[in-house]
Every structure is written in C-alpha cells, then in structure tokens.
Request: fold
Amino acid sequence: MNEAYELDVNGVRYPINAAMDRNLSSVLRTEVGLTGTKEGCDDCECGACMVLIDGQPVNSCSYLAAQAQGREVTTVEGILDGDNLHPLQRNLLEEGGVQCGFCTPGMIMSAQALLTRNPSPTEEEIRIGLSGNLCRCTGYQRILAAVERTAAES
Ligand code: FES
Ligand code: FES
Reply:
C-alpha cells in the first residue's frame, strides 16, 4: 500500500506516493524522475547508486526512501554548477575516466564527499574514498587522476 510523504532532493521538495519499503534509488529514478543515480547490484556492493544524505555518501539501493524524510538528499544532478559541469565531471571527461559511464554518477558522489571532508587527499586516501565504487571499464587510474586534478584545482 502506498503512503504519501515528501523528500528533499537537490534543494527541491518532492511529494512522493510510494510503498514504505521502496528503496531510495528506485524512488529517485521512478517517482522523482532523476535517473542519474544508477542501480547496479542492488546489494550494496557496486556504488553505482551512491547519493549523499546530509552530505554523507550512502548506497541508495540499500536505504529506504521513507528514511530520507527530513534529510537533504543530493544526487549527481544536484552538483551541477548552473549550466556548467562540476569540476569532477569535467575532469573525469578530460582525463578519460568515463567509458560506459555507468559507475560515473556514483564515483562523482563518493569523490565529492571525499573532497568535502578532505580537500587535499593523498592517492591512497582517494583510493580508500572510492573503494566502495566499482568500475568495470577504466582500470581506475584515470578516475584517480581526475580526482587528483580536481583537488589540485580547488
Ligand atoms: S546498486 Fe547500490 S551498491 Fe550496487
Ligand atoms: S566507466 Fe564503465 S563501469 Fe566505470
């Protein structure tokens, strides 16, 4: 049975009408209409569904949407700088850190959380910060380079 509640996503309040056992990634994609957040393993393993909740990275496939009431949810759509790409997005593109792109939104959200808490991370700290995000395409090195470049620019 559906219930009505509200979610704050990227600074906008959305009315939701959904079953209380729906996970956040599913509600973001189908009820809110923000499909940047990807669903991969649906089992807290791959990080494709990573969003920020009150600034903390969370696998949204394993987080009930209803639990996010009263919290600020940030998705990859929420980090755009107006019409401009976020520096992480631009650097991932320029460093060749995007191939199929399926992991990219989750990588960006984890990297954003890392750079917020640690603006000048070492390579090892970047590896640890992104350790919950799997990429099948790039071999990770170009993603690391993009995060390092973003840190160096800020
Ligand atoms: S889809 Fe959520 S961790 Fe893989
Ligand atoms: S670019 Fe394809 S999974 Fe990372």
About this structure: The first helix runs from residue 24 to 32. DSSP finds five helices and five strands in the chain. The longest strand covers residues 2-9.
